[in-house]
Amino acid sequence: MSVIVKDIVRKSFSSRADYYDSLAVVQKRVTDRFAELLTENMAPPHAILDIGAGTGRLLESLNKKFPDAELVGVDLAFGMTSYAKKRFQESTNVLLACGDAECLPFREKSFDLVVSTSTYQWIDPLETAFAEVFRILKPNSWFSFALFGERTLFELRESYQSAVSVAGKALPDRTHRFMSQKGVLDLLTAAGFKNVTAESEIEVEIHREVKDLVRSLKGIGAGSASDKALGGLSGRSVIEGMIQAYIERFSVSGGVPATYEVIYGKALKA
Asked: Could you tell me how far CA 232 lies from the centroid of its own chain?
Protein backbone atom coordinates (compact mmCIF):
# COMPACT_ATOMS: atom_id res chain seq x y z
CA MET A 1 0.00 0.00 0.00
CA SER A 2 1.31 3.45 -0.90
CA VAL A 3 1.97 6.36 1.43
CA ILE A 4 0.20 9.68 0.88
CA VAL A 5 2.62 12.47 0.00
CA LYS A 6 1.25 15.71 1.43
CA ASP A 7 3.09 17.94 -1.02
CA ILE A 8 1.54 16.09 -3.97
CA VAL A 9 -1.92 16.57 -2.46
CA ARG A 10 -1.25 20.28 -1.87
CA LYS A 11 -0.02 20.96 -5.40
CA SER A 12 -2.68 18.83 -7.11
CA PHE A 13 -5.65 20.52 -5.49
CA SER A 14 -4.12 23.99 -5.63
CA SER A 15 -3.69 23.79 -9.40
CA ARG A 16 -7.29 22.58 -9.98
CA ALA A 17 -9.13 25.21 -7.93
CA ASP A 18 -10.51 27.18 -10.90
CA TYR A 19 -12.50 24.26 -12.32
CA TYR A 20 -12.90 21.98 -9.31
CA ASP A 21 -16.60 22.77 -8.80
CA SER A 22 -17.44 21.97 -12.43
CA LEU A 23 -15.95 18.47 -12.16
CA ALA A 24 -16.48 17.42 -8.53
CA VAL A 25 -19.97 15.98 -9.00
CA VAL A 26 -20.00 13.52 -6.10
CA GLN A 27 -18.19 15.92 -3.78
CA LYS A 28 -20.88 18.55 -4.37
CA ARG A 29 -23.63 16.03 -3.64
CA VAL A 30 -21.82 15.13 -0.43
CA THR A 31 -21.60 18.79 0.59
CA ASP A 32 -25.33 19.30 0.04
CA ARG A 33 -26.25 16.13 1.92
CA PHE A 34 -23.87 17.01 4.75
CA ALA A 35 -25.38 20.49 5.17
CA GLU A 36 -28.84 18.92 5.31
CA LEU A 37 -27.81 16.43 8.02
CA LEU A 38 -25.76 18.94 9.98
CA THR A 39 -28.55 21.36 10.80
CA GLU A 40 -30.99 18.79 12.12
CA ASN A 41 -31.73 19.58 15.79
CA MET A 42 -28.67 21.81 16.14
CA ALA A 43 -28.43 25.00 18.19
CA PRO A 44 -26.80 27.86 16.24
CA PRO A 45 -23.01 27.77 16.77
CA HIS A 46 -20.97 30.92 17.36
CA ALA A 47 -17.63 29.92 15.79
CA ILE A 48 -17.36 27.34 12.98
CA LEU A 49 -14.22 25.87 11.41
CA ASP A 50 -14.34 24.07 8.05
CA ILE A 51 -11.26 21.86 7.57
CA GLY A 52 -10.41 21.27 3.92
CA ALA A 53 -12.72 24.10 2.92
CA GLY A 54 -11.70 23.87 -0.75
CA THR A 55 -13.54 26.38 -2.93
CA GLY A 56 -15.74 27.47 -0.01
CA ARG A 57 -18.95 25.80 -1.13
CA LEU A 58 -19.81 24.35 2.28
CA LEU A 59 -18.88 27.60 4.04
CA GLU A 60 -21.26 29.46 1.73
CA SER A 61 -24.08 27.12 2.73
CA LEU A 62 -23.26 27.43 6.43
CA ASN A 63 -23.07 31.20 6.16
CA LYS A 64 -26.67 31.24 4.97
CA LYS A 65 -27.83 28.86 7.70
CA PHE A 66 -25.88 30.54 10.51
CA PRO A 67 -25.61 34.22 9.48
CA ASP A 68 -24.58 35.34 12.98
CA ALA A 69 -21.69 32.88 13.29
CA GLU A 70 -18.01 33.57 12.73
CA LEU A 71 -16.78 31.15 10.04
CA VAL A 72 -13.23 30.06 9.28
CA GLY A 73 -12.12 27.90 6.39
CA VAL A 74 -8.71 26.27 6.30
CA ASP A 75 -7.20 24.30 3.42
CA LEU A 76 -3.79 22.86 2.65
CA ALA A 77 -3.91 24.17 -0.93
CA PHE A 78 -3.22 27.88 -1.45
CA GLY A 79 -5.06 27.85 -4.78
CA MET A 80 -8.22 26.63 -3.07
CA THR A 81 -8.20 29.30 -0.37
CA SER A 82 -7.50 31.99 -2.95
CA TYR A 83 -10.47 30.83 -5.00
CA ALA A 84 -12.72 30.57 -1.94
CA LYS A 85 -11.99 34.15 -0.93
CA LYS A 86 -13.78 35.31 -4.08
CA ARG A 87 -17.04 33.90 -2.69
CA PHE A 88 -16.86 36.04 0.43
CA GLN A 89 -15.63 39.42 -0.75
CA GLU A 90 -18.74 41.03 0.73
CA SER A 91 -18.72 38.98 3.96
CA THR A 92 -17.09 40.28 7.11
CA ASN A 93 -17.67 37.13 9.17
CA VAL A 94 -15.75 34.64 6.97
CA LEU A 95 -11.98 34.09 7.13
CA LEU A 96 -9.96 31.84 4.79
CA ALA A 97 -6.45 30.61 5.55
CA CYS A 98 -3.95 28.01 4.45
CA GLY A 99 -3.31 25.37 7.07
CA ASP A 100 -2.53 21.74 7.74
CA ALA A 101 -5.20 19.57 9.37
CA GLU A 102 -2.45 17.76 11.28
CA CYS A 103 -1.23 21.02 12.83
CA LEU A 104 -4.08 23.52 12.91
CA PRO A 105 -3.05 27.18 13.37
CA PHE A 106 -5.58 27.86 16.15
CA ARG A 107 -5.55 28.00 19.91
CA GLU A 108 -7.17 25.38 22.12
CA LYS A 109 -10.93 25.63 22.58
CA SER A 110 -11.42 28.12 19.73
CA PHE A 111 -14.54 26.68 18.01
CA ASP A 112 -17.91 25.30 19.03
CA LEU A 113 -18.40 23.45 15.74
CA VAL A 114 -15.82 21.85 13.43
CA VAL A 115 -16.90 20.47 10.07
CA SER A 116 -15.23 18.82 7.10
CA THR A 117 -16.26 17.14 3.85
CA SER A 118 -14.25 15.05 1.37
CA THR A 119 -10.94 15.82 3.07
CA TYR A 120 -9.88 13.29 5.68
CA GLN A 121 -9.29 10.47 3.19
CA TRP A 122 -6.22 12.48 2.13
CA ILE A 123 -4.73 12.58 5.63
CA ASP A 124 -2.37 10.01 7.11
CA PRO A 125 -2.05 9.51 10.03
CA LEU A 126 -5.70 10.28 10.63
CA GLU A 127 -5.38 10.01 14.39
CA THR A 128 -3.13 13.09 14.47
CA ALA A 129 -5.74 15.13 12.60
CA PHE A 130 -8.56 13.96 14.89
CA ALA A 131 -6.49 14.88 17.93
CA GLU A 132 -6.08 18.39 16.50
CA VAL A 133 -9.84 18.76 16.10
CA PHE A 134 -10.31 17.69 19.71
CA ARG A 135 -7.73 20.25 20.83
CA ILE A 136 -9.31 23.28 19.15
CA LEU A 137 -12.94 22.40 20.01
CA LYS A 138 -14.62 23.96 23.02
CA PRO A 139 -16.10 21.57 25.61
CA ASN A 140 -19.60 20.28 24.79
CA SER A 141 -19.06 20.96 21.08
CA TRP A 142 -19.42 18.80 18.00
CA PHE A 143 -17.16 17.59 15.22
CA SER A 144 -19.20 16.66 12.13
CA PHE A 145 -17.67 15.33 8.94
CA ALA A 146 -18.05 13.37 5.73
CA LEU A 147 -15.18 11.34 4.31
CA PHE A 148 -14.82 8.62 1.72
CA GLY A 149 -14.80 5.08 3.11
CA GLU A 150 -13.20 1.78 2.19
CA ARG A 151 -15.48 0.85 -0.75
CA THR A 152 -14.67 4.09 -2.55
CA LEU A 153 -13.40 3.44 -6.09
CA PHE A 154 -13.13 -0.29 -5.38
CA GLU A 155 -13.62 -0.96 -9.10
CA LEU A 156 -10.54 1.06 -9.99
CA ARG A 157 -8.49 -0.41 -7.16
CA GLU A 158 -9.38 -4.03 -7.93
CA SER A 159 -8.77 -3.54 -11.66
CA TYR A 160 -5.36 -2.00 -11.00
CA GLN A 161 -4.34 -4.77 -8.61
CA SER A 162 -5.50 -7.38 -11.11
CA ALA A 163 -3.36 -5.77 -13.82
CA VAL A 164 -0.31 -5.71 -11.54
CA SER A 165 -0.86 -9.39 -10.75
CA VAL A 166 -1.14 -10.30 -14.44
CA ALA A 167 2.06 -8.36 -15.19
CA GLY A 168 3.82 -10.72 -12.80
CA LYS A 169 6.46 -8.19 -11.85
CA ALA A 170 7.50 -6.59 -8.58
CA LEU A 171 5.65 -3.36 -9.29
CA PRO A 172 4.68 -0.90 -6.55
CA ASP A 173 1.12 -0.83 -5.21
CA ARG A 174 -0.06 2.75 -5.82
CA THR A 175 -3.65 2.23 -4.69
CA HIS A 176 -5.14 4.61 -2.16
CA ARG A 177 -6.17 3.34 1.27
CA PHE A 178 -9.61 4.41 2.44
CA MET A 179 -10.61 3.92 6.07
CA SER A 180 -13.39 1.59 7.19
CA GLN A 181 -16.30 3.02 9.17
CA LYS A 182 -15.21 1.05 12.24
CA GLY A 183 -11.66 2.31 11.86
CA VAL A 184 -12.87 5.92 11.79
CA LEU A 185 -15.02 5.41 14.88
CA ASP A 186 -12.16 3.75 16.74
CA LEU A 187 -9.79 6.63 15.99
CA LEU A 188 -12.33 9.22 17.12
CA THR A 189 -12.81 7.37 20.41
CA ALA A 190 -9.06 7.10 20.88
CA ALA A 191 -8.80 10.88 20.38
CA GLY A 192 -11.13 11.40 23.34
CA PHE A 193 -14.47 12.02 21.64
CA LYS A 194 -17.77 10.80 23.09
CA ASN A 195 -21.14 10.00 21.53
CA VAL A 196 -19.36 8.91 18.37
CA THR A 197 -21.70 7.87 15.55
CA ALA A 198 -21.39 7.25 11.83
CA GLU A 199 -23.43 6.02 8.90
CA SER A 200 -22.43 5.35 5.32
CA GLU A 201 -24.17 5.99 2.02
CA ILE A 202 -23.22 4.92 -1.49
CA GLU A 203 -22.87 7.33 -4.39
CA VAL A 204 -22.27 6.04 -7.93
CA GLU A 205 -21.07 7.94 -10.98
CA ILE A 206 -21.29 6.49 -14.49
CA HIS A 207 -18.50 7.40 -16.89
CA ARG A 208 -18.49 6.68 -20.61
CA GLU A 209 -15.01 5.15 -20.47
CA VAL A 210 -12.42 4.29 -17.84
CA LYS A 211 -10.18 7.02 -19.24
CA ASP A 212 -12.96 9.54 -18.58
CA LEU A 213 -13.04 8.47 -14.93
CA VAL A 214 -9.28 8.83 -14.61
CA ARG A 215 -9.37 12.26 -16.29
CA SER A 216 -12.14 13.35 -13.93
CA LEU A 217 -10.16 12.30 -10.86
CA LYS A 218 -7.05 14.07 -12.09
CA GLY A 219 -9.11 17.09 -13.06
CA ILE A 220 -10.19 17.74 -9.46
CA GLY A 221 -6.74 16.95 -8.07
CA ALA A 222 -7.72 13.50 -6.80
CA GLY A 223 -5.18 11.51 -8.77
CA SER A 224 -2.58 9.34 -7.13
CA ALA A 225 -0.74 10.95 -4.20
CA SER A 226 1.47 7.88 -3.89
CA ASP A 227 5.14 7.93 -2.91
CA LYS A 228 5.73 5.08 -5.38
CA ALA A 229 6.53 5.96 -8.97
CA LEU A 230 5.19 3.92 -11.87
CA GLY A 231 6.53 4.61 -15.34
CA GLY A 232 8.10 3.19 -18.47
CA LEU A 233 6.86 0.22 -20.45
CA SER A 234 5.79 -1.66 -17.32
CA GLY A 235 3.68 1.28 -16.19
CA ARG A 236 1.89 1.63 -19.53
CA SER A 237 1.27 -2.10 -19.66
CA VAL A 238 -0.32 -2.07 -16.22
CA ILE A 239 -2.54 0.91 -17.07
CA GLU A 240 -3.74 -0.78 -20.25
CA GLY A 241 -4.37 -3.99 -18.30
CA MET A 242 -6.27 -2.04 -15.65
CA ILE A 243 -8.55 -0.48 -18.24
CA GLN A 244 -9.28 -3.86 -19.82
CA ALA A 245 -9.97 -5.49 -16.45
CA TYR A 246 -12.28 -2.63 -15.47
CA ILE A 247 -14.29 -2.98 -18.67
CA GLU A 248 -14.56 -6.75 -18.41
CA ARG A 249 -15.55 -6.86 -14.74
CA PHE A 250 -17.61 -3.75 -14.14
CA SER A 251 -19.14 -2.40 -17.36
CA VAL A 252 -22.83 -1.45 -17.15
CA SER A 253 -25.31 0.06 -19.56
CA GLY A 254 -24.00 3.49 -20.47
CA GLY A 255 -20.39 2.99 -19.44
CA VAL A 256 -18.46 2.11 -16.30
CA PRO A 257 -19.45 2.84 -12.67
CA ALA A 258 -17.34 4.54 -10.02
CA THR A 259 -18.53 3.85 -6.49
CA TYR A 260 -18.03 6.18 -3.55
CA GLU A 261 -18.76 5.14 0.02
CA VAL A 262 -19.48 8.28 2.03
CA ILE A 263 -19.14 8.06 5.80
CA TYR A 264 -21.09 10.76 7.64
CA GLY A 265 -19.96 11.05 11.23
CA LYS A 266 -20.46 13.03 14.43
CA ALA A 267 -18.44 13.15 17.63
CA LEU A 268 -18.77 15.19 20.81
CA LYS A 269 -16.01 16.76 22.85
CA ALA A 270 -17.67 16.47 26.26
From this structure: 30
